[in-house]
Write a structure and sequence with these properties.
alpha/beta, 8-stranded parallel barrel
Length: 405
């Protein structure tokens, strides 16, 4: 028990806007300057210049894969104007990963878009699919040798954010302070459910991108879904199915025909006949307000396998927002036990990519720390936490055994 198959990918994930710094042509950059309550990303943690050091930390620890994104707003700062220098920059990142023995898992869109794309109406704009397809076509010119490509990160959360943005635009006088998409429960209202119309458009965009990647590269291609790992109270099974469709299954069905699907889960929530129950107040809760639920990833894997009919699964994000690294190790160890049990039950799981490599900019605020490595935001000095060495030891052993304790 608790063994992992040969060739299983072990690594960590990041997102460009959260770590690179000065992503000035993106829609998020403008929001950070104008929306009340948002902290600015600024220099972030300067991984744009320090990516080689970051990858070396990962490889030296014994991990074998790095999921990172390429930034659309840098590559296409104006419509149809592609930056050769930025494409070359991201190609250097791919080459650096390969040179260190890390399998690159490249994400083409991780929430942020160029500001001009947002000005055209974003994902609901008339030319949205065409615009994204043009960018993806250009991006494929640097993807030689990349075995895994993610078209979009968490389209269900992207749809939720677009829904919130539309509501804020329609009622600017009612605008409250920023509500981060990664804060699941605090004194503010719960997150708005994603509009299924926006979700359907994102499925269309994903499939267009998938077809381009397939035609122009040899990579496996899919997208990643945020799984909330709902569990029904007695009598609430129908309500759970209704919520699962809105939050997850629409997008999991959108994975039909993909080479893999990325599973991303952090916590679980109960569903009663009225809807989603708030996370109960507890000292165990994480820095983003979610319940301490390392079993969530197992629930998410099994739900994904059931809905998709057995598409290979890559765990592209799983982790915990905590300042206590021993808690991080305990959480991850238990989560990996649930992953191992799912594999033993015959579910095709290809790898585990921890969220995240580095403490970073957490979409509007800095306090939550998910990283295996801490970063001094003044000097950018990286300091590996014990959890990085621990996860590397698990990766080298290919098994949890006594390492989880």
């Amino acid at each position: 028990m608790n063994n992992f198959p040969p060739g299983f990918l072990w690594g960590a994930s990041t997102a460009p806007h959260q770590i690179e710094g000065n992503n000035i042509n993106s829609d998020w950059w403008l929001q950070e300057q104008t929306v009340p309550g948002m902290e600015p990303s600024g220099d972030a943690i300067d991984s744009y210049h320090r990516y080689a050091e970051d990858m070396e930390l990962l490889a030296d620890a014994g991990l074998t894969a790095y999921r990172f994104g390429i930034e659309w707003a840098r590559i296409e700062p104006l419509p149809g104007r592609f930056s050769r220098a930025e494409l070359a920059h991201y190609r250097r990142m791919i080459d650096t990963a390969l040179g260190l023995g890390l399998t690159p898992v490249v994400t083409l869109n991780h929430f942020t878009t160029p500001q001009w794309f947002a000005d055209e109406g974003g994902w609901l704009g008339e030319r949205a699919i065409e615009r994204f397809a043009s960018y993806v076509t250009e991006a494929t010119t640097i993807l030689d040798g990349v075995p895994w490509v993610v078209t979009m990160n968490e389209p269900n959360m992207l749809a939720m954010m677009a829904t919130m943005r539309r509501m804020m635009t329609a009622a600017p006088d009612a605008q409250q302070d920023w509500q981060s998409p990664t804060v699941d429960q605090d004194p503010r209202p719960q997150l708005s459910p994603p509009d299924t119309q926006i979700g359907a458009r994102l499925v269309e965009a994903h499939r267009a991108a998938r077809d381009i990647v397939r035609a122009r590269t040899d990579a496996k291609v899919g997208w990643t879904i945020a799984n909330r790992a709902f569990v029904a109270r007695p009598g609430a099974e129908e309500k759970k199915r209704e919520l699962e469709y809105v939050w997850e299954d629409l997008y999991l069905h959108g994975s039909a025909g993909d080479d893999f699907v990325g599973v991303q889960s952090y916590s679980s929530q109960w569903v009663n006949e009225d809807g989603i129950e708030p996370h109960p107040a507890s000292p165990e809760n994480t820095l983003v307000g979610t319940a301490y639920r390392p079993d969530a990833i197992g629930i998410a894997i099994r739900h994904t396998a059931e809905v998709t009919g057995g598409i290979p699964i890559l765990i592209t994000e799983n982790g915990i927002a905590t300042a206590d690294d021993e808690r991080r190790i305990a959480y991850t160890g238990e989560a990996l036990q649930h992953v191992s049990e799912a594999i033993a039950d015959g579910i095709d799981v290809r790898g585990y990519l921890h969220w995240t490599l580095l403490d970073n900019y957490e979409w509007g605020h800095w306090e939550p720390t998910f990283g295996l490595v801490s970063v001094d935001r003044q000097t950018f000095v990286r300091t590996p936490k014990p959890s990085l060495a621990w996860l590397g030891s698990v990766a080298r052993a290919g098994a949890l055994s006594a390492l989880a304790h």
